[in-house]
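Most newcomers find our protein records easier to grasp once they have seen one. Read left to right, the backbone structure tokens trace the chain's path through space. Once this layout is familiar, the rest of the handout is easier to follow. The record below serves as our worked example for the rest of this section:


***
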Amino acid sequence: MDKNEERDILRIENLNVRFETEDGVVHAVNGIDMKLGYRKTLGLVGETGAGKTTTALAMLRLVPNPPGVVECDRLEIDGQDVRGMSASKLEQVRGKEISMIFQDPMTALNPVFTVGEQIAESIEIHEHLSKEKALEKAGDMLELVGIPRQRANEYPHQFSGGMKQRVVIAIALACNPKLLIADEPTTALDVTIQAQVLELMNELKEKYDTSMIMITHDLGIVAEVCDDVAVMYAGRIVEQGSLEEVYGKTMHPYTEGLFNSLPNIKNRQAMLKPIHGLMPDPTNLPEGCAFAPRCNYATEECKKACPALRNVGGTHMVACVRYEKDPNFMIDRRKQNG
């Protein structure tokens, strides 16, 4: 067995992120644990405001302070403790060990520099190459993502949205990072370009043996590219496990609600079943389960106790009080729903 297979590329324990503002304390991430194996892809799923992007920024130590406060018992990337790293060490790690594709390709690129210069900058810093050689490698990276190297001298405004996203991917992969975080990488793209970008990311992930965290609200994307899934709600992970476990044996009512919100391709006349209500205000989270006010199965106990993740078989974990009292809750619920 490869020594890399024996440990995880990422280990997080009890990560908390809050923003101390004049209007109150925003509890963005609330005690999450996460691990990711080498060459694996984790899908981090949830509605807007669930804390997905904040979790990613905390991994890179990019949460602004003030007002952000990050507390964590463990945060390791490839065995290195990120919490105590100096600023200079962090600069070496970002882009080289861990890299991020930010959400909007339209704003991720600097409009006053050519795309070749922007790719080359990271290569110069981390691989200590001359500017000439870095620009040459930048051209190689452009060709790798399907853009002719001759376009390296062009500016971002001369590229379409899909091409911009390819440039951002080239920047993120320029130094062959061990861990890639992709934050909603296809949100601003049309469906055809989405498919092309996802196929490209899959190919490059295999080529470079890169581990990846895919942040998205699109369950279809997760099914296409991910090995494992973590479902976030109000700053907590409420269900996690392998793709087969979470998709084949959905257990948390919130995850069930996400699937029920999808169109039924077998019955186009079927009505959608949206999750009623809104995510709770992060400055005033409920005392018990944060999903209880929107949950069809909530009891009085759910409103009092905040459930911890518990193992329900294999790597499958779920945070729901109902399972602690009734292991057959899922079976009974499915019978109830027909």
About this structure: DSSP finds twelve helices and 13 strands in the chain. The first strand starts at residue 8 and ends at 21.
